[in-house]
Amino acid sequence: MLKIFKYLQAREWAFIVISIVFIVGQVWLDLKLPDFMSEITMLVQTTGSTTSEVWATGGKMLLCALGSMILSFIVGYFAAMVATSLSKELRKGVFNKTLSFSMEEINGFSIASLITRSTNDITQIQQTVAMSLQVIIKAPILAVWAIFKISGKSWQWSAATGVAVIVLLIMIGSLIIFVLPKFQIVQKLTDRLNQVTRESLIGIRVVHAYNAQKYQEEKFEKVNTDLTNTNLLVNRLMAILYPGMSLIMSGLTLSIYWIGAHLIMNAGGMDRIGLFSDMVVFTSYAMQVVMAFMLLAMTFILLPRASVSAARVNEVLDTPRTIIDGEMQSLPKGIEGEIELRNVSFKYPNAEDYVLENISFTAHKGETVALIGSTGSGKSTLINLIPRFYDATEGEVLVDGMNVKEYSQEVLHNKLGYVSQKAVLFSGTVKSNVTYGDNGEAQSTDEGIKKAVEIAQGKEFVEKMDDGYDSVIAQGGTNLSGGQKQRLSIARAVNRNPEIFIFDDSFSALDYKTDRQLRSTLKQETKGATTLIVAQRIGTIKDADKILVLDEGKIVGMGKHSELLKTCKTYQEIAYSQLSKEELENE
Asked: Does this entry carry the keyword Transmembrane helix (predicted)?
């Protein structure tokens, strides 16, 4: 939990120091009240005392109470400022750290868990910090100061207070021991609840199509019930705290008065008045001591859950990055648009078997290189090594003659126009999606946007939309068809005007006619750019300058379409499964 405070800025630390000063003033005012109460008690029992003297002392008590309340408001304001600023920094830190993750780190956390960590967990920390700054600082000062005030009054009363504090600490400690593991379970169940909810909403059409509403309801109900039951157990255990503290306070008050009654009965004359006054004052101070520990107990209610939340947030913030930026911050001169893989092998973290083995090939400037193979042959994995979504386990991946590890990621990615296997669109407009990211001013003009959409064969459907290029795109592009989403994703890559295009099975949702038109236009309009295409359809890649055939992570064929039909058995099997022998011969 303490590691979280390193994210506080100098301004927040200044607020904490100011809060401590005001808290000391607040405690001093609170502890002055029993002194005035003692004075009033003595005045009431002393012959010759006037009402004006009692009113004057009562007025001082009122001023102290008002002053304490004002200081409490000020401390609360500063505590809220510190807690809010900390939560802001943590949310920003978690979000930025998540954006910097490679696929390896992302796969270490579920999306539902990352959402919970950046929302629910940080909210828990914020609430606890806001409470703690007011309580954890005040409680020890109040307790020590009050104990100092009552020391020497009566060992019997001090012993009773000590027993009450020990019983309170045992009760709080026992609850914390039982409750802390349950808070960890609660956060994990919250992750699971978010995951089930997200899964149901994303797949709502499939749920309806298969009449699986009841199944999803039962799935949600189970997780929701588990979370509810765990929360109920935690809250029931914590509910013991308040009645227990009230019982201890009432018992302490009764003990002090019972001991005081015996002391007063055994005393004589004027000593009785002094003992009675001491008893009233001691009761007030003893209540302040117990109150200090009660304040700590209130924090302990939130602290275990916040500690779990802090550990989960720190887990994200402290996750080491596996993809480290190189030192090259500017584009190298000389070779442009060339990709080379030298004896590249790759296996996923903690996996035993290699997904890719000894891959070597070169894509020269302006060439179109296609990758084809059965599902699981390693095509997409190979493509992901070029933008450094993963780093090669062995061998080298070179772009423009330089190892990709030597580039800063910004420079490397600015060379690439990447279109993922699953078309990804963001909430906004057609225009904002096409110009997404760092594209430069030239590509952000209306003419540049229209040209990119036209090359991607999206002009017809975009201009038919109500607001054309300013038409709204829903989150995830849910108001578009799969083919429309793919074309806008391709337009985004084209608009970037990169040296290298990477299409990871990005034509699968297009019909054959649109596919052919798009590739033909793309080849004409992007001359000089190197293109890597992962595809399942022979028709998409047969015109490529070079085709790599992958099988179980190895290159089993390399060459043009006509060559592979004669020399590569795996390519023949794929080709004949899609087209007849006559069709292939005619082509």
From this structure: yes
CA distances from 578 to 267, 518, 522, 584, 585 (A): 109, 21, 24, 10, 13
Kindly report the length of the chain.
587
Q: Could you report the per-residue pLDDT of 540-572, keeping only the tens digit for each? A: 888 889 999 999 899 999 999 888 888 899 988
Residue 280 contacts residue 44 (beta carbons within 8 Å): no
Q: What is the CATH number of the domain that holds 586?
A: 3.40.50.300
Q: Which residue type does 308 have? A: V
Threshold 0.90, pTM exceeds: no
- Whole-angstrom distance, CA of residue 18 vs CA of residue 454: 62
- Of 255, 289, 317, the residue that ends a domain is 317
Report residue 472 as tokens. 């709204």
Number of neighbours of residue 105 by Cβ within 10 angstroms: 18
For residues 40 and 34, give the distance between their C-alpha atoms in angstroms, rounded to a whole number.
10
Asked which of 293, 317, 341 is the last residue of a domain, the reply is 317
What percent of the chain has pLDDT above 70?
91
Provide the domain limits for residue 579.
Answer: 331-415+534-587
CA distance 368 to 413: 19
CA–CA dist 573, 511 (Å, integer): 23
Would you say residue 14 lies in a domain? no
Contact 498, 415 (CB under 8 A): yes
Map residue 399 onto helix, strand or coil.
Answer: strand
Identity at 109, one-letter amino acid code: F
